[in-house]
Amino acid sequence: MFSRYPDNMKSPSVSLLLGVSVLPLFGLTDSGVFLNVSPNFQQFFREASVSLSCVEDGQTVDGWTVKRTKGEKTEECRAVGSGFGSINGSSCFISSLSPSDSTVYWCETSSGQKTEQININVPEGTGGDQVILEIPALPVIIGSDVTLRCKRKDNNRFRAVFFKNSVNIGNGSEGELPLSSVQQSDEGVYHCYIDEDKPTPQSRLRVRDKTPSPDLIVGAVLGSLVLLVLLLVGGLILWRKLTGSNPSSPPPDVTYADITSIQTGNRKEPSSDPDVVYSSVKAGT
């Protein structure tokens, strides 16, 4: 049976449909890139050094730049005029930290895609009386062990008082607070102080599960639903085009035959006339 739509006219419609259907899924994809801080702390003494890099699956990635805020402006590593640090291989290296380096840092692409921000603190103070809280910059995996340390620059160990969300959670012998088998409830903002020294800056301990985040799961489900709806709608549109199901148009593929009658004289019994030829009328399906 003849079709009014050749096969080469079907491919563009199907290809366009599939292309549009995939777009929502790409928009929901998590890049997996994060800002790696080495050593893995949020607080540093003055004149300490730190290396910052954009990492995915344990490897540094191209196309990402380490950035930070400076007042109301944004700076990027080793930018001319308004930059900070220096490039060491694929990492941004700050060789001598000062309180002016206390701000948020992150990785960003030229298209504006960003990682989570990490707040780095370099407290005021000079000499051995500087006190910091050694707390991980990267999220801690649920079930792992971590130790928070209230530390003086002169390395003398003292009993420290620790706070979580501004609530006293107890003393730590020799300035340490061990957290065994970390749970989601351990996430919060911590600080400490030693004897009569000033308290350290506050830093957030982040806790993550090994399983995908709820946002990523919800995004995948929504993306699948959008894809299914687009496929159904696109399939219906293609079916209507291919079948030509339009109530206002005449039915296609109807064949009409001519009827030819040959008569040589008047006869009383036309049914027995051998010179009459009948042709059939047939409607094609």
UniProtKB/TrEMBL annotation:
GO terms for molecular function: transmembrane signaling receptor activity. InterPro entries: Ig-like_dom, Ig-like_dom_sf, Ig-like_fold, Ig_Fc_receptor, Ig_sub. One of its GO terms (cellular component) is external side of plasma membrane. The chain crosses the membrane at residues 216-239. Gene3D superfamilies: Immunoglobulins (2.60.40.10). Residues 39-208 form the Ig-like domain. This is Ig-like domain-containing protein. It comes from Channa argus. The lineage of its organism: Eukaryota, Metazoa, Chordata, Craniata, Vertebrata.
